[in-house]
Endonuclease I (Saccharothrix variisporea), 386 residues
Amino acid sequence: MRKFPWRLAGALTATATIVTTLLLPTSASGTTPLTVTEAISRQDGSTATVRGYVVGQPTATTTVVRSNFPNDYALALADTAGQTSTGQMLYVQIPSAFRSAWGLRTNPSLLGKRIDVTGTLSAYFSHPGLTSSTAFAFASTTTTTTTPPATSTTSAPPTDDYYRNAVGKTGSALKTALNQIIRTNTKLSYDQVWEALKVTDQDPNNPANVILLYSGRSQSKTLNGGDVNDWNREHVWAKSHGDFGTATGPGTDLHHLRPEDVTVNADRGNKDFDTGGTAAAEAPGNYTDSDSWEPRNAVKGDVARMLFYMAVRYDGTDGFADLELNNNVNNGTAPYHGRLSVLLQWHQQDPPDTFEQRRNQVIYDTYQHNRNPFIDHPEWVASIWG
């Protein structure tokens, strides 16, 4: 029988090609992943899968923490597990659908693990990054989530799309971008606030009640007004700080208006926020002195994020004062609120919880159609205020 060496050679070549192909490392999507070094040099807005070791969480352009992770919103990748230079790291944005599985606050054991992430090669924290991520997987596996699981039945767009013009910015540029996003909101009258608060602050365990901010008491929605033990409308950014009163706009913005007991509201008055003082008589866990108010631990972060929102939303360009945070108390009628250093501590101490996140969503879906960015992206607080 005649031999056909060329056929044998061709078969061997094809076999070798198949074996080689099977041995090449590939991502869950079937493509060869980029190294972190390659991803850093290719910040062109294209979609790619990047393979690297989790080396920490970025909190600012040149800061990556390796313990006491503040939230589940970002991680840093490097080509080696022991890398400490932020210039050799890629900052990865973690969308909400993936945070419970891939965020470092919830999953600190991810530190040092080698993973594949698919997303857009674009700056994050003004640093080479991977944003709008669509898939995460351990590098040693072939399983991944290519479509984020549904996390809500509301009509809101993905928050990463809502904030697309802010992603990757820091400092004043981020503050300006967020202002442009959240300023286009529907405004309520002061009378409309009554009914809105009955929905935004509804007690999840008793739909006939609302939760009062400082006292934490669950109280009937119908017991609102001006009588003793009624609840009324608390301006967390005191309405005298900038002298906007109850005017439509800052005076009726649901993102800082909360139900509170009439007496407790009066005790807080227009005081700035700080630590210390004597116990508030009708609000356990709250403390006050002549110039400041300290809320209970469970809402310290809520208070801080409401003030951060106000300082970004109202920048002096829409007929109202330019609201700013400072490190003072006794701000009086000046358009300032303090104490910033304490608010930053409270923000870290008390991250957004389910109640706060639901409230943010309801305001977006039903009333003002804008969001508090510091509930959705707590890491942006450090980007703006340090």
Q: What stands out?
A: The mean pLDDT is 87. The chain has two domains: 36-151, 171-385. The first strand starts at residue 47 and ends at 60.
